[in-house]
Design goal:
alpha+beta; globular; 6 helices
Length: 138
């Protein structure tokens, strides 16, 4: 595992890809950003099933944060107001609400701007599944 955190997202989902590009441009998190389809998930210590289910933040020591807490870590790694927003998301009272909101968005990403019908399909049923993806079939 490297010295920088790794943020793993669903590269087949238009909404997820658009969100990550916006985060890289505006938030500028201090991490490596990679689609799970092109990540060595085994080396990162996560399964394909978990990577399909939620955004993942893998800390250099191997601790994995998923969903809303991955978003919190992404924001905490940035500077200024973004880090404050990340700290708020990590608060115990906010954490539960953030998780619920994250699941609502994740479960409906195919309906959101940039999302496509493929976003709602399991990875093995998406168009082009298995074509060149190093983790296809796992």
């Amino acid at each position: 595992m490297g010295m920088r955190p790794v943020l793993v997202y669903d590269g087949d989902c238009g909404f997820c890809t658009t969100s990550m590009r916006a985060a890289e441009r505006y938030v500028r998190p201090r991490c490596d950003v990679v689609a799970w389809q092109f990540a060595d998930l085994g080396a990162l210590g996560v399964t394909q099933e978990r990577a399909e289910h939620e955004l993942l933040w893998i800390a250099p020591g191997g601790t994995v944060y998923g969903g809303a807490q991955a978003v919190a870590r992404l924001l905490l790694s940035a500077r200024g107001g973004w880090a404050v927003a990340g700290a708020v998301l990590a608060l115990p009272g906010v954490r539960r609400a953030a998780h619920g909101l994250y699941r609502l968005v994740a479960d409906n990403r195919h309906r959101l701007p940039g999302g496509t019908a493929a976003c709602s399909l399991p990875a093995d049923r998406r168009p082009g599944a298995g074509a060149g993806a190093p983790n296809a079939g796992r």
